[in-house]
Amino acid sequence: MVKILFAIGILLLFPGCWTLYHAFSIGPASWALDQTVFWGTPIVNFVFWIGLAHAGTFLSAILLLLGARFQKRISFIAELSTVSSIFVAGLFPLIHLGVISRFYFLVPFFNQRDMYVNFASPLVWDFLAIGVYAFLSIAYLIVHIVSLKHPSLSKTRRAMAWVLFPLVLWVHTIVSLDFAVSTVPLWRGGFLPIYFIAGAIFSGLALVMLLLESTQGRGKKLEEMLLAGSWLLLAFWIWEFLQKGVWHPEVIFFGFLVVQSFWITRLREKKIVRLIVGVSVLVAMWWERFALIMHSDIKWLWSDWGWFALGAGLFLFIFFGLYLLFQKIFPELFLVAPQESRKNTPQRQVILIVVFSFMLASFYLFLNHQYDPGVPWVQWVPAFFPIAALIAGLSFFVLGIYPLVPKKYFFFFSGLVVIFVGFAAGAFYAGGNTDLSFQSSPVSAEFISKKERPTSYLWNSRCVSCHGSDGLGNRKFIYEFYPEPQDLTLERLVLQGEDSLTRVVLEGRAYMNPFEGRLSEPEARALIRYMHQLAEDKE
Amino acid sequence: MTPLMNSLACLLALLPAPFLWTTRRPLARQGVLLSLILVSFMLFVFLAGDSNDATMEFYPLEMWAFCLCVSTLTLSKRKVFFMSLAQGLWLWILFFGSLSLFYRGLEISFLSMTLLAVGILSFRFLKTNSRETSFAILIYWVGIWMLF
Lengths: 539, 148
Prior knowledge:
The complex is a heterodimer. Chain A has helices at residues 2-26, 41-66, 71-97, 122-149, 154-180, 192-215, 220-244, 249-257, 265-268, 271-293, 302-329, 347-371, 381-401, 407-430, 445-449, 455-462, 464-467, 475-480, 490-496, 498-507, 521-538.
């Protein structure tokens, strides 16, 4: 079964990788977008996969701290599922960026061009929270594996579980804020942070149940938890209906009604029923994210279908690939549950690490605040905890591993990490080349002209994300990202003149990207005239 | 929400709290019970709440967290741990709910959050098994609910 699923993963990767290549070649034009759907299917898939990444840590770390015994049996599968899902999830925001080589603009780090990240933006919080979560989840899995041979490490596992406990909830709360702080009425809701956490854990439970069925057998407690979760989700769906008048019968059918079959013992005993319920929950939760983000009857392009193949293929490939690998290298992982002593890391050490982490995170944000004093301090909080968690988690990890590794290897490896971090910091500080003609795969002017699209289409595809469809600025984009584009008033356009503005479009200025290589000069001039027309209409 | 409705919400949240953990139920049934309590709070807020007040969006969740906090007073094992967790949930709902509304121009009230954080940090030093202390903690939470 494991090998078959691994093979299916490889097969799915073929169309998936082709979709990825297509998306990187022509950017966001490759998937379905319109004026109301400005995020599209990559973000649908991102929210879905990041949700799945939660149950792993939930089942392993949180249940460990709650003292639930049944987590012993499922902890390895759960942690492996987290690491695989988070890798898949992390890919989709990079696709969503369109220009993947600019991802470093999301890194909250100083740079030489003073194009500083916006700490009021949930996109930056996302990057931090997910990055830290991925890093610590891998470290937690390593500690799990090593603790089989070195039981003394079990207290490190416990200490790290305390860091991961709030972090796993933090990550999906931050993902919910992408929606909750936006200006889109359908996405508003102070209840979204808890609703998203509940949805993430619910879908993740279904995934872990399916993985357990396909590898080790049945997880009765998971079925119970899935039943409980379906009722909690139903409460949130009712509240959403009462608040916004929105409800999705297909989500309630697959996510609630189908799960209720577990009340009938005779049905629940059948493996096929359990598999159907697991898949049904995954379908419901994907559909829920889809209905949230794609709230119009937009026609799908083939890339939108390709993300299914990419997500599922990559997950199956990583999960079952690692599973087969670990089966060969660490067969004891599948026989022995990790040691779970009640012993904790000494209290003084914990207090020191926590204080040190919080102080360092505060100092880091204080430095950032000097660059961007306009952001109220409450908007720094979402970024604060992941940084503190990273420092604390890393400290526990290093202190746990240090006595077990020969000193020369420890220092050699630490040196390599320091060099890598220094290199990455330098690269982020320097930033990349901003000349877009330098890039290998811009959308060519021919791509657009071939379709004989009018200037309004050019405007919609090139300018509207910052300047808005009416030239007054896309408030949503500015609100969530930055910087503020110029107001395209008639007075300003007349004052600058067509030649000068054409140069700005082609060569860029200040925060505006150069469009040379993606627009021809006649197209740039046509856009300037279109801007005039918009400005005249406004006046 | 008017002060009267706020008091009613407080009473409604207190009502199921003593009975939540008295009987040992299977996990799924306990989940159903907790969800039905949440739905009843939602219906109450939908009917009695002020639809123009944006804080109503997370008010039923606050009621739920408040109910869970009070219910931990009936636990016999790991009381302080679950007390901290329940208060953490309440704090979480308040902070991130308010942060969402902050982007719509609403001010954040930090007093209740600070008091909850104080509760999380300090209750471990109390003798929570005594009736008097449990009563004092209950009053503390009701005070947070009613006054802030």
